[in-house]
Amino acid sequence: xxxxxxxxxxxxxxxxxxxxxxxxxxxxxxxxxxxxxxxxxxxxxxxxxxxxxxxxxxxxxxxxxxxxxxxxxxxxxxxxxxxxxxxxxxxxxxxxxxxxxxxxxxxxxxxxxxxxxxxxxxxxxxxxxxxxxxxxxxxxxxxxxxxxxxxxxxxxxxxxxxxxxxxxxxxxxxxxxxxxxxxxxxxxxxxxxxxxxxxxxxxxxxxxxxxxxxxxxxxxxxxxxxxxxxxxxxxxxxxxxxxxxxxxxxxx
Amino acid sequence: xxxxxxxxxxxxxxxxxxxxxxxxxxxxxxxxxxxxxxxxxxxxxxxxxxxxxxxxxxxxxxxxxxxxxxxxxxxxxxxxxxxxxxxxxxxxxxxxxxxxxxxxxxxxxxxxxxxxxxxxxxxxxxxxxxxxxxxxxxxxxxxxxxxxxxxxxxxxxxxxxxxxxxxxxxxxxxxxxxxxxxxxxxxxxxxxxxxxxxxxxxxxxxxxxxxxxxxxxxxxxxxxxxxxxxxxxxxxxxxxxxxxxxxxxxxxxxxxxxxxxxxxxxxxxxxxxxxxxxxxxxxxxxxxxxxxxxxxxxxxxxxxxxxxxxxxxxxxxxxxxxxxxxxxxxxxxxxxxxxxxxxxxxxxxxxxxxxxxxxxxxxxxxxxxxxxxxxxxxxxxxxxxxxxxxxxxxxxxxxxxxxxxxxxxxxxxxxxxxxxxxxxxxxxxxxxxxx
Lengths: 252, 435
Known about the structure:
Radius of gyration of chain A: 18 Å
CATH superfamily of chain A: P-loop containing nucleotide triphosphate hydrolases
Strand content of chain A: 25-35%
Shape of chain B: globular
Number of strands of chain B: 22
Helix content of chain A: 25-40%
Largest sheet of chain A: 6 strands, mixed
Number of domains of chain B: 2
Largest sheet of chain B: 12 strands, mixed
Oligomer: heterodimer
Structural class of chain A: alpha/beta
Order of helices and strands of chain A: EEEHEEHEEHHEHEHEEEHH
């Protein structure tokens, strides 16, 4: 589904990704871990097309298409979804309006008929259960005045409605208390299907108790320095990241 | 150039003195004399520094005819967003159209009608207020308006009356308006404890015409009254519009203004509010959407003359093309106006690389125990917010429109009267191209 080869990316004149290789197949959950500044959030944002980053080398193929050739909206229409680490507040536009606009744009791009607001409300009712929310949240402005936990839940709600094929969760666990973490993780698990895939970007192993990955990758200084199964996350929890970072020094 | 105005003034005053109360003629005459003396503001005048009025000053403007041009209800329909039961006064090229207006049944003591009619019948009521709030010394444009004061809307709400039906004053221009000037003069009086919503619209059926509208609206907000005043300026984009809204507020009153400006080649709105007593609340919201070569100027002034009052002001602008915005916000706090709480914000989004805004807060505070803040921003749409919307599947242009709508909605949401809010929403979406 996703083939990342030798990906390099810069922000300003700073190279942040320095040669990432990663393959994700349908049905898989990959965890990308690493210390602060290792480039894991950059990887997530580059995949979604964040304009602040420039890809200088390498390739990304998503379902056979050159992902880097696509605009951010085309990536979304093709089924890619990034749950933001810091979801943006849009005062003045209701959650329901925003989500229906997004849903319809994606349907339009796929040659499907747009849904009207009544039909959309029916669909929403179902999806709100995923994040254990009532309908009140839909009349509030997008993320406006939401708590940190509410913003993350709202990302998962958007994901539930937009039904991506490849979901990338960028530090969705940061700033969540244990209840919110449980709701968010349960939401993600509910949405797992054999024909989609998930990349979970996280600093801590904690989230991986709830969303169990098939593979764990450790990023350090813009490269994947180790890959393994879910037990690697536990090892990181016990030993920290330093032993792997030292490994990089030794190798280079 | 002022000579032409003087000639027209003399011609009018010999023809029309019988239709006006005695006290008014000297007022008009002194206004004319003042304008003849001052002329238009010179280019160096600080108040007009960013607003080049040369096309007005150098233009030759003939008075619009006193009989309204033929306009059908169907033509007016797009501007009548209110409900049928609203009291509506329609002025075509400055002249009152009884046929297009619909006042309806009014509560006892309420007066809604044309100023020309009131000048004949209600001279005593007018004497207390008309020209008493907007001084001719304020600006040459006010002096000129006062000299030619003939027609406009009168709304009088007596003490304790809740005017449940909003009042809509519609000033519409037609193709006949080309090359003309009108001086609409409105008087809105709310006695103690009254409550009302007023909408003042300046619209056109001739979007390509060049004309000049020079309106003055005086507003007396009595003690304990509540007034919402919405102003919609959608003149021809080749027209000139220099308007003044002058408000006097009394104790415990609440006045909220919303001003939308979309029209005019050059359009200026002066909103001046004086807080004459304690415990007054004043809300001033504004939105300007400009494109092409338009220049839209908002000059606001709030006079905190007394203690324990609150004023809250937010003006926002979206500027496209080579258009220009001007914002000047004056806040005067007198030494005795302790515990004043005044906040002013002006935010602008520039869409065009050649669009420009001149924004200037001007706070003059002479009391020491006050809370006064101001802030102004000029910038582009937030890149991360655009990315967020696009990452959810919205094409770049739609994401931009959504964020611009959100930017505007922050002020439009403050409009209390739902049908007005819906109409403002519609106008903004239409201008942004929908999404």
